[in-house]
Amino acid sequence: MSYDAKYDGLIDAQTWAFIRETESFYPPDAIGLSTEGQRALYDRMCKAFHAGRPPGVTVQDTALGDIPLRQYQSQPNAKAQVLYLHGGGFVVGGLNSHDDICAEICARTGFDVTAVAYRLSPEHPFPQDFDDALAAAQAGSKPLVLVGDSAGGNLCAALSAALETPSLGQVLIYPSLGPPTPTASMTTHAYAPMLTAQDCVYYAQIRAAQNPQTLDDPRFSPMRAASFAGLPPTIAISAECDPLADDAALYCTAIASAGGRARHIREAGLVHGYLRARHRADRARASFARIIHVIAALGKGDWPEAF
């Protein structure tokens, strides 16, 4: 696939190699596949990028009612628990797609990690995904740090506004926080590698079950909240070459304007989904180190001053 020449000056060779390898799992007719077909391709791609679990991490599959969970532990008596909500446009992904990411967070922070396989659209459109995430967040007994990428970042932000007991903080990684709107990044990076503006519209429509009124529900679109006061300390990280990049920035600005603590980090030259490149591209590796740093700080009740 060919891209606008502007990306040649933004994206380095390592990241291009990651993009090309990811694209190799998707045939030209992938857009016309059934939901089951798309999930199969996504799962196969994630399996190929799986980096293995670090030594010393114990893993147990459990369930909260009908909600599958995966528990990761590396130290006894951990002081905090990370609730990890995976990306995938609310349509693909699950416990296996982000398994190695969760295991590495557990190993490098020492915190317990719980991954949630929330129900997916179109079979289970909004708010069933949110309901599952909320149930999992309310079930934990330890102080929580909410962490999620893409669709999972959306769920974290929605949870932060809904939980009666605030979390220690939230870390949102290239999150989608509202209905696709013509922000500067949505326009500039409408045809970016890995995710396009059209993809964003497609996934939002599936999740909303074609109901336009759903788009204004703040549980669906956290940027549509009436107030951003009282939200926990927030770090939102975006990829420069991503139509969603401005979502993280606008969200942090809204929290700060309401008197909260929030910081946006825009990762230069990176693309949506770069967590899978953290062992292949130096920029992604450095960003993941920053993500680990801020999760560790928030889990200790600290504000991460240095990145």
Percent strand equals 15-25%
CATH class: Alpha Beta
Q: Strand count, sense and closure of the main sheet?
A: 8 strands, mixed
Structural domain count: 1
Tell me what the CATH architecture is.
3-Layer(aba) Sandwich
Q: How many E-type strands?
A: 8
Helix content: 25-40%
Structural class: alpha/beta
N-to-C SSE series? HHEEEHEHEHEHHEHEH
What is the radius of gyration computed over CA atoms, rounded to a whole number of angstroms?
A: 18 Å
Strand order of the largest sheet: 1-2-4-3-5-6-7-8
Could you name the ranges where pLDDT drops below 50 across 5 or more consecutive residues?
Answer: none
On the 0 to 100 scale, the average pLDDT is 96
Overall shape: globular
For the terminal residues, how far apart are their CA atoms?
35 Å
- Summed up, the helix count is 9
CATH 4th-level superfamily:
Alpha/Beta hydrolase fold, catalytic domain
